[in-house]
Every structure is written in structure tokens, then in C-alpha cells.
Amino acid sequence: MKSVFLFLFIFIPVLAGGQNLTDVLKQGEDVFNKTCATGYCHGAQGAGGGAPRVSARGFDQTFINNTVTRGIPNTAMPPFTNALSRADLIAVVAYVAKLNGIANPTIAAGGGRDGLLEPPTVLSGDDARGRSLFFDAVRSFGRCSTCHELNGIGIPVAAPIAAVPASVAALKTLETPRVSTATVGGESMPALVLSNKSQAVLFYDLMTTPPVLRTEAPAAVQIRDGSNWRHSSATGSYNEAELVSILAYLRAAVKP
Amino acid sequence: MRLLLVLLLATPLYSQDGGPAHADWPHYGGTHLSWRYSALDQINTTNVKNLVPAWIFQTGDYAENLHSTPIVVDGVMYLISARAQVTALDAASGRVIWQYRYPTPRSGIPGSHSDFIQNRGVAVGDGKVFFGTKDNFVVALDQKTGHEAWKVSVDDPRQCGCNITAAPLVVKDKVIVGGNGGDQAHRGYLTAFYTKNGRFAWRWYVVPGPGEKGNETWKGDSWRFGGGSPWLTGSFDPDLNLVYWGTGNAAADFYDGDRVAPGVNKTQDVNLYTASVVALDADTGKLRWYYQEIPDDVWDFDSSYEVLLMDRQIRGQTRKILVHMNKSGLTFVLDRVTGEYLGSFNVPELFNWITGVTENGKLVGRHEPELGETRSFCPSAAGAKSWNSMAYSPRTGFIYTPTNEICTDVTPNANKPEEGRFFMNGNFPMKLPPNRTTYSHVDAWDPVTGKRIWSMPYKFVLLSSMLATAGDLVFTGDPEGNFFALDARTGNKIWSFQTGAGHRGSAISYSVNGKQYIAATSGWHQTVVGGAAAALFPNENFRLGSTLVVFALPEGSR
After folding, report:
1. Which of B260, B369, B459, B504 is a plausible cystine mate for B525, CB 3.0–4.6 Å?
2. What is the ipTM of this complex?
């Protein structure tokens, strides 16, 4: 079993990045207090609460890595791979290892089967501002991520962003050839058709935001090419300067 | 006051047509008034001893629990399980009419197999069955076929830390849904979609944004992650066209240093509109009035619970009132036309977070968590009552509520928020209070006099909703698997049945072809409050499961 595991994962020492162990453990304790100790879960110092005690249980490093990253199926223990940043994940695993008497904590890293622990994209300045705008919760359904998923966040209504428009003007006048027109019950609406089969027609109704994924019987819907929908109708919550920042973020984040 | 007199109608005492559920159980709370009361009286205090199972439905979704409230419309039951698998059943025979399985989100997205999984119910209306999901969609199914009609994303749970476990509320041409996430760094809201096509209708943010009234009650930009998520199901008064909802606690839960300016008067209007009951215009979602029960909630006593709408005689006048309990067990009676405070009463036997309430509803003698200290509080954040609902019988005039006597040691911290991540800022292990042998009780209270009429003690905790019927019976279940009936007037236990798994959901009553049924949800939940209960009673093995047990009187004994 262990050899199978080693085949799938590469172990690196937690200090590989040159960080100080004391700092990592302090960060791990902070993450633990914020994420694991709270609520109805593991309690301060892992002493237990609504969920089991995790200190001084004799857990080995492999078990801790697996449990924290993957969770435990059919229990309340969720996987934290996507819920925590890479640094936080490393830190909290090191902290739980310390709670179990492990002196030199390590963590599984690299691609792995589940694509664990992708190194984060480092952003700064305008890129970071653009990122905040892209996902800006204050804009409710008026933000880009209402229709676009990027780096694992957002609703993937549109196809993945493959190319970044050269300018704000280009962003607004973006061609959207996949958007067609659906007519249901006498009402026409811009539609992004996902499948058109004999059983059912599945499409996003783009009349309002957020888009609604609708399922209609083929006889109840007519689809025709083209629509009067324009990408500019979805960018209205942002001003010019904000769209410039968003484009800067996209150039940093979109991998061709 | 003059206005109020104009609005007073000659409503006979205790006779509100929209309150009782009759043959059907059309709504999460029985009807839009949320009484969890059935007008059926075939099963009564005399013959309830003859009650036997009529049919049993195993959902097959043994993720952990069965939290939901079944809905019955025209003899068809709609039941949702923890993983959002919806089944339509012949409510008389248990025959499956259709089944729908919500696709399990992939690992890492909330709702996947290894995540917290729960669902508290569907709503039915406009020929559709509606529910919310752990990955934060609202889904509409065709009521006849179970085929998906539309589906819309409310928010990305990977960003907001929020999701939906509550049953939606259908109001006229809209379906309104609240969300979880108030314990994450998140800004809570209610969202309404058109039932017909899923298009967005309105959103009401619990925490007002810049420029909106109430935003000034937040320190700095703490409003961005101010919590307040209304995570349960509201009520609706069609005559007033108002939707009523309870809102969650302010975030961070146990530390207010970053959201409340120093020296603020804590008797009213702190961190609006968290820990409040709100009345919204059903068509627009605009705030009509609010009543903040716990200004600056630093105990996680969020006010998200059910809102019971009733008409009662108060000081000689028939008043349109609402009755609302938050987790502290302090229960408010408000005028539901204006939000005026009419009275309150405190349900748990143990409390130390305040010393009392003034005549006009202000909290007195606040005992708060303190940074750098561990302080003990009763009740706990698990709630004097958990999220399961109370019931109200217009025949007795009493509300029936399960109450838990659990305390907690709170150690706050001053962590900064990070969007969508836990933001409770405190550790709060539960503990049993000393010198007791019972830790919960079912009570009957008169909401008008604020008097406890009777109380039936129980040794563990009670985390299942109450059902009241016109047969003067009150039904609920316990974690040991017993589903039982109490005499609504005395609290005497007169019938009990072992269903095999603990009770965490909500029983209902309905009739088909003149025969009354009682449906009980059996299936404990060993997470969150259920998990705390397991830790409090480590020698007990409360059984998980996911089974609906439906009872009726045998032929000839009615």
C-alpha cells in the first residue's frame, strides 16, 4: 500500500522553500484555529469538539496529508485542497503533524492524480486589482465570474477563456458566435445551446443575469443561429479603468 | 396607533384560515404561516395508541441523515434526501412515482461525497418542485415527471463559502431562497427567481452596502463580510403581501472589535440587519420593517429561525402578530404589520448571556466573550433550540418547542476575514451544565402570556421539529430513534414507536381519501450540532439513517 502511495506522490520537506519551521507551525496554528478548531469541529489544539480529537492520536504523516487534502468520504471532513492556499495547506498539515509528535513534517506535493497543490499564480498591482474586480462579490451578478470560470472560481457558462482581447473596445465588441436565439412559448431569447438532442434541448437563457440553464422538449423550442446579444451587455458594472485592470489580470492568468 | 385600529379586522380568536394544513402539507412550515399544524383530527388522544406503520420508504441515500420536511400536494409526496435526491411518492401507498438524482459535484466542490451533506426540503408550486443545493444552485423539476426544468447558480461556493440547505419558499410567481455562509467571511442575502423560467427577480442583502441606510452601523468595511445569512425558510402573509425572514448573526461571531466601533450604544441597531426579523415586500424584496433582536450578537445566537404568523387577542384587541425564537431561546412577539415589540419570553431554564429584557424589549446585563479569556455561556451556539421548527396549535393557543440545556466555553480571537473562509473568531466547545440529569425538554408556552404551560424532560438533546394536530397531539422524535406523541394539553407521552434511527428532520400530517397519515423522518446527523451531541454523550450511539416511516390507524380502529 505504501509503495503504491509513493508511486502517486512525491514528498518534499516542508522547509524546501527556505521557510523557518517555527513560522510555518505558527501559520499552521493560525489556519487550524480559523478553519479546523472552529465551529463544531476539532477544537483548539485539536482537543476535539463536535468532531474527533486530532492531537496525540499517533497519526502518521501520510494519513494527515491524505485526510486534510482529500477529506473522509461520507463524513463531515471535507477536502481542503481547493479550500486553502498551498502555503496554508502545507502549514496546517505541519501543525497537525506536530500535534501528533512528528518532528519533521512533510507534505505531498506535485501534480498527483487529483492535481493537488498547483503552485499559485503570483499577481501584483493592476493584475491583482483586476482579479478582485473579476470576482467582485459586491457586484452580485454583474461580475465576470457570473459566466466565466478562471483558476477554479466562477460559473463556467461560457467556454474557457482561450484568448485575451487586445483592448477594452475589443472586449466589449467580442464576437459571440455560439450565442443563438431560442424561442419558447412565443418568447425569443439569446441562448447558449449546450445540447440539442431528440430527448431534450439544454441551453442557457441569457435574457437576464445570471444565465438560467433550461431544459425544454425539442417540440417546445425553436433554435436559430445568431442573436442580438452583445458581450458589452455583460460588462456594464465596470468602468473603462476597471476593464483595463481586468484585461491585465486575464493576460497574467489565462494560459494559452 | 390610529392606523392600527383601522387595520383591526373582526377575526374570531384562533380561527385563521391560512394557518392550518388540511389534507395536504403544501409548505415547509405546513402553510405559509409556518405553524406546523394539521387540522386533521382522525388521529386523536384516545386512538393514537393504535397507530401503526402504513408504509416505509428507504431513501437509499445513506450519506448520513434525513433532515427534510416532506411536502404533500394532491396525494403525492415530494421528499428530498441529504444528497438532493428527490422522490415523488404515492402518499397513500409509498409507491415511487419518479426519482431524480442531483449529480454529485466533483471532489473539491461543496456537495461532493466527502463534504458536509444535508438538505432541509423542497418547495412545490407552479407545477414544479424546487430545491437548493450544496454547490449553490436552485433547481426546478417538473412536478409530474421529475425532469429538470431549469437550474441557476446563486453564487460560487468555492468563493463565497456559502450554499443552500434550506427549503425554498414559493410566493406567488417567485421562489425565494436563503443561504448558509454566515459563519464564513460572506455577506448574506435572500434571492428570488421567477418560478416560470428561473430568471432573477430580486436580491435583498442582509448587510446594506455603502450609501444604503444601515451601512453606517458597521465599522469600516466590515460590512463586506458581515455575515447575517438567512439560512432557513421564511413565511408569507398574503393579505399584507409581506415575506418574513429571520437573519443570521453578524460575522465574526464571537469577536466584534472589527465590526463595531468603540462606545457604540448596544441597545439597538448594531450591525444591521443581522440577528433580526425582517419584513420584505414580496414583489420587490424591499425592506418594509425590521426588528433587531440581538444588537451586536457576540454569542452566535443568530435569528434565522422560523417565523410563525398568527392573529391573537392581546390586551383586548385582535392583533396580527408573529412569534419568533432565536438560538438564545429568547422568543419575541411582534406586531407583524409594523414590527412593533409586543413582548418576549425566555424559554431555556439556564441562561447567563443577559440578565433580562426591559419592558420595551431591550437586552439588559449583557455578558460578552472577551478577547484573551475563556468565558462560559448558556445557552450555547448550538441553540436552546436547533434549526428544527416549533409548532403552534390554534386549538390550545400554545406553541410547542424542543429546548436544549447545553452550555459552552467561548475563547474568542481577532482573526481577519478571508473571503469564503471560516470567520467565527472563536472556539466554543459545548459542555453539559452541572447538577442536571436531563438536558432537554419539550415545552408548551402561551405566547401571549409568556407562561410555560407544561414541560416534558428528556435526558439527551432534542433536534427534531414539532408537529401539532387538531387531534390535540404533538409529535416529535428523539436521537434514540423514538418517534412519539404527547397530549397537547398536558404533555403526557401517550404513544411511542422505535423507528431505528435518530430524529433530526420534521414530521408532517396529511390525508388521502379520508385517511390521516403521520410521516416521520428517521435519520440522525452526526455533524455540526448532531456532532456536538455525540461528543456530549460519548457513551451513546445515536444511529444514522435515511428512512421515512408513515403511520396510520388500522382499518376498523378509526
Report:
1. B504
2. 0.92
